[in-house]
Fold each of these.
Amino acid sequence: MHAAPLAVDALLQSNLYEQKSAIIMTSATIQVGGSFRHFRNRLGLPQDTMVLEVASPFDYPKQALLLVPRDLPDPTSPAHGTVIQDILAGVASAMNGRTLVLFTSYASLRAAHAHLREMTPHLTILGQGIDGPRSVILDRFRATPNAILLGTNSFWEGIDVVGDALSCLVIVKLPFTVPSDPVFAARSELLEDSFMQLAVPQAVLRLKQGFGRLIRSGTDRGVVAILDSRLVTRRYGQTFIDSLPPATIVHCGARELAGLVGDWITRVPDDLVPEHVAGIGDGTGLE
């Protein structure tokens, strides 16, 4: 049996804040939509708490391309899984492996694993819970040039693959917490708008952690593709975009993904500035 407090602010106040004259809290995933408000509220920090946003040392516009398809089925649609599996096969072939795919469910991971095994026999498919434990398949992924790594849960954070071994990151769905999760459900009951006050901020922070798996050094280059139509069809989608590092963003069609991935990876670094990418895709533009 596990228990969790619904709020930690009072506990932190008595056990930490009152015991110290100064405290520094730091993380790459504190802000949501450029604001510290969610972090302050959850931890019970006063509104006059000193905050500082420090820019990343990475040149994200040159090093990372973010692809946002505009024409995917809704994640709740029965067609979503089939479309995603075909996209994954195309992207993996264009990259000749070197791809990490992050899922929000084991069922989707297993289905994609079976599809990729059939459609891309020339590549090594490594699935969490299928081809070995986390540490084993991660080591195999680093050592295998044409490998695709499929992960969920723990693979969204703590994965460090520097260099060309990981050059493409695919995020299948926005990582919302399952509404039936007991702790999430209980905390939701305390809020006026639990979706915008809790569900969205938690998913944003999780997405930022997942995005962070790609660029691990100043010389890394790669592509992130988020295959969730809610980024463009829901009002809250822009909050997710605004919370991510300032990569070069291209809105595109699903059929363009594989070609855009391959084109970005083969470009020389000097051509990776945003103004040289303006003609990519359907012309819907960069942000």
Amino acid sequence: MPSSPDIHFIGAGPGDPELITVKGARLLGEADLVVFAGSLVNPQILAAHSPTAQAYDSAGMTMEEVIRVMAEGVAAGRRVVRLHTGDPALYGAIQEQMVELDRLGISYAVVPGVTSASAAAAALRQELTLPELSQTLILTRLAGRTPVPERERLSEIARIGATMAIYLSVGMIEQVVEQLLAGAYTPETPAAIVYRASWPDEQIIEGTLADIAGKVVAAGIDRQALIMVGEVFGARRHGLAARSLLYDATFTHGFRVGVVG
């Protein structure tokens, strides 16, 4: 059996303390030292799963300070957890930490988490991939202080017209709308904003690309919200009955023979 890694990177989920994975909760409960993203991670997650661990809030720390704290914890024989919001593989800034840990010869493992796109879809009670409307989900962001490769400019990938979940961009909602309209979307394309998905103060704003920016500005939302765009978000409202073939009585697959009526 392989030895346990020195550090576990754990996705805390979108906010609800119960939306951390079973594995993540177990490892968090076993931790002696936790470095957590305090600006985003719900403190109730620590209170529920790791109340006795020594905790460091990384919101005011540099990467070098984070690495030093974790490395010192490992050297002291402590069980170390690096707790990230959502899923650490998405906008989690974990790659640079892992590079440093590799350099120091410190082992680690990653435990995935529920990303906010999934929590937002649940809040909206909406499937993101509907037959004949969209079978593609794009997770992206608008360029800001963090640059985006030229080929991934929002206006470029908007040409696809797929369902889109746009992270870290609600504070630039007018620019987002402008770039989406330069692609395949129209002013009538449904859009939704989910603020703090799964938190007690979750807020949902629905509209179209014609009016969503004004609604967001009026609500005073400029951070911690996901922008959801695509025709799937209007399917229920417009009575579109797109159905998958999986449960169609006439469809044959490996577990059922379809009935020809």
